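Hey, I'm writing a tutorial for new members on how sequence and structure tokens pair up, and I'd like a real worked example in the thread rather than a made-up one. If someone can provide the structure for the chain below, I'll link this post from the tutorial.
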Amino acid sequence: MRLILPLVIVGVAIAVLMLTPSDARIAGLDHGTVAAGAGAVAFLCYLLAGARPSDIARMVSSIAVWALLLAFLVGVYAYRYDASDFIDRMTAELLPSEPMVGQGGEAIIRSRLGGEFSVTAHVNGSSATLLFDTGASMVVLTASDARRAGINAAGLVYDVPVTTANGAAMAAEVRLDEISVGPIVMRKVPALVAKPGALQESLLGMSFLERLKSYSVERGKLVLTAK
């Protein structure tokens, strides 16, 4: 009795396949797909024929778990590059690190979750975090970053107007001995120092960027290339 329904399914499938030209489609499916589907349905019917209701429920739940796991694995594989980019952005947001070094000596910086690039640099040998900003004509340091870089804020003349996220402010012109980003080192870099409280984060502006061979954004990563 257990074999009757599976055999009927297989028999009907064979008859349909034999009566249909090999190049014709059956319900929109090719012959190989119909044969495989009929075999799977017949096998499933064979398994369920002698099972108790509790066994069927357990079997259905197991199939559902494996189907979800398979769908998850397929999704991870299909979106593996997007997932990698998201993990990189999360890491850059939570754990700022030194720029990666490319095969050609490029400095590579991962973007934050918001899409901006926070560059870990060394200013006059002191570590600082600068926001990549092509709209800034010069490198601009916060008062605290300037102090750590050995600049005496008390001796500066704040006579250069600048526009920051906090609004208009005054800054002082300085010349930095050195800025390094990964393997890239620039010396005698013109810069500005903002008044205390006028700037929340230092900016990596064009007085540094224009001296590079190139800078570009590729797949959520900022690539800086020295001349």
